[in-house]
Hints:
Blueprint: H1 29-42, E1 47-48, H2 49-56, H3 63-75, E2 79-82, E3 85-88, E4 93-101, E5 107-111, E6 122-124, E7 137-146, E8 149-159, E9 164-172, E10 175-180, E11 189-192, E12 203-211, E13 220-229, H4 233-244, H5 252-259, E14 272-273, E15 280-283, E16 292-299, E17 302-310, H6 312-315, H7 321-329, E18 333-335, E19 338-340, H8 345-351, E20 359-369, E21 375-386, E22 389-392, H9 393-400, H10 405-410, H11 415-435, E23 445-449, E24 454-459, H12 464-486, E25 493-495, H13 501-513, H14 525-535, H15 541-551, E26 556-558, H16 582-595, H17 613-643, E27 650-659, E28 662-667, E29 673-677, E30 686-689, E31 694-697, E32 703-705, E33 709-718, E34 723-728
Parallel strand pairs: 6-8, 11-13, 14-21, 15-22
Antiparallel strand pairs: 1-3, 2-3, 4-5, 4-7, 5-6, 7-8, 9-10, 9-12, 10-11, 12-13, 16-17, 17-20, 18-19, 20-21, 23-24, 25-26, 27-28, 27-33, 28-29, 30-31, 31-32, 33-34
Helix pairs in contact: 1-3, 4-17, 11-12, 13-15, 14-15
Amino acid sequence: MPRRCIRGRKPLAKATKKRRPSGGGRNISSALKAPVLELLAKADDALSETEIARTFGLAPHELVQLRTVLAHLLEQQAIEKKGKRFALAAGQGRLRGTLDLTAKGSGFAIPEGEQAKAGKDVYIAAHNLNGASHGDTILVAVTGSHRGHREGRVIQVLRRAVTQICGIFTASGGGGYVTPDDDRFPATLLIRKKDTLAASDGMAVVAEIIDYGSERQGPIGRIVELLGEARTPSVQIRMAVLQAGLRERFPAEVDAEAAGLLPVTACAEGRQDLRHLPHVTIDGETARDFDDAICVERSGDQFILYVSIADVSHYVQTGSAIDQEAYLRGTSVYLPDRVLPMLPERLANDLCSLIPDQDRPAFTAILRFDATGRRIGASYTKSLIRSQQRFTYTTVNQLLYLNDQEARAAHRQLVPMLECAGALTGLLKKRRLERGSLEFNLPEPEVTLAGESVAAIHLAERNQAHLLIEDCMLAANEAVAETLAKAKHPVLYRIHEHPDPAKLEVFTEAAKALGLRLPQSEVNPAWFAQVIEQARNSPTEYIVNNLLLRTMQQARYSPDNNGHFGLAAPYYLHFTSPIRRYPDLVAHRVLANLLACQAPDHARPLPGKSTDLSEGGNHLSHCERKAIEVERNGLARCACLLLMDRIGDIFTAIISGVTAFGLYVTLDDSSISGMVPLTNMTDDYYLHDSRRYRLIGEASNRMYQLGDRVLVRLEQVDFTSRRLSFSLAPRSIA
Length: 734
């Protein structure tokens, strides 16, 4: 099969020119450029040659090379000389940031520190990247603005983010090249024959970059790991993990620390014994870590809800090796064939997990509600519990909502407690909806694997048992947030700010195009709830929910309690999943500090010496976003594997987006997304009506509008970009 470039990338097999040597001995000149610029960027005042040399520990005979670097930077006008001292060049604005590269080759510099507060990101055209790659820490000169957006050029790459890439190896006579799996890395990687690790043509590999190249020569690398056959789920998912730079293994000191932990005994001091209560866990069929258990009692016309959460903070001490690793990971990541846990298995699936018929330490929120579901009291305690049953959502749904007599007979002792839980959560949900809490209906796609193939992708089932447990967890999260806020103990809140006005305007136009009658009232959570209710069970329900979700701001972690718009909650944080989310562990530590009557500043919720919750919130929000991205990446790869042998097949779909260059479609039953590009719509010349979200055939007057049901034919599966291309089948669906 002839070799070809993918997405316009040139193979670098011919780029074998050798660079001119820059002198013998220890060549530090090129290695010093980035550190010198970074040093001057951070310095408050200009620095002398001696001060710079002392900072880097240079020997006297190495000063010649430092002078060469300084002279070169002066020539580039990246720095300036003030007498005998050097400083970052004045004039054009300079900032330090992280490069976010787009698939089109241009990028944005995301400023760091105080500069991040000054304004928007800086746009950098492809010809101004100066060899920078996605994720690199860069020094940028702001050169102007266009349409209100700052523009700039990369002066220097201060730190490389990507030192290894995964991709597909193509063999050639002189070795070969690796086409990166991530289309944000814009060039193929030349591999010399001695560095191929005997990789075969078409194999998925991991390559280390040993030379980032220049304008005249592309990057060079060496293969360090053979991943295997590219078109298998295990390899594709591993490539998604590597592309995201996720931590796959725990360091030896973390495993050793976990192995040395001892279980809490029944005679543990300072714990309230709640083993007599009929706690149960309710999770999915495949769950292995159980971090929450519930029990509900009636007291007259009141309810008492016990939400008992695995006491991870008992085992994970602030600043320990386990704690530092958990903070770096931030969250567990769930993929179709594996879990990358935040905590070692010894904790996640054993010591902390609320396994049935085992004594386990917990942190219990004891919440009292009146007959209408209004919370009238809250207390908290370190406890010892014993889960009486590991229920699945399916079983609880059969017991409570399908009235399955066989299931009720099998669990007759726990049915009364579950019925109390059902009655309470019905009241809690009613109150939530009345205040405007949003109930999106967007089932998540679920991948089913069969060995080394993708058997199916279907929408995960959600039943009333899911909602029961969610309402219990929401109640606990709100109560803890309100308690800590009123006690003025700093913690990380889960905040969700008001929608962006520009996105809201876009949604309004789309909703009108779909025929919705928007409420004539203030735009608040209740307004959105009315729109969702209007679309419920209609053909456009999926589209409306999806558009509304895109309109929303992204929830994040912050020490500033700005409330949660989507839940219409003035106080909210994450408390109920400390096995898989670090912010929950932060809440546990702060709440324990409050119960111990310690001053707010006595708590050490984050590892290390830092107590900066703002920085911690940003880091943990970033970890969450990265986890979501890699989970979506894994799903897209599995979708390509599922459909790669189904070219020409017909599918039912809904038009989920309309642009000037084609239609976005989402397949029924799987939520797999793809596109019908305008180039595949050859039966007519189509005009884009942007206000009404539709394409109209100029000659035929045929119309394709947002929310329409259509039949589509699969035309192409592009593994490099994970994109699916369709054409419209002859008949639309009414």
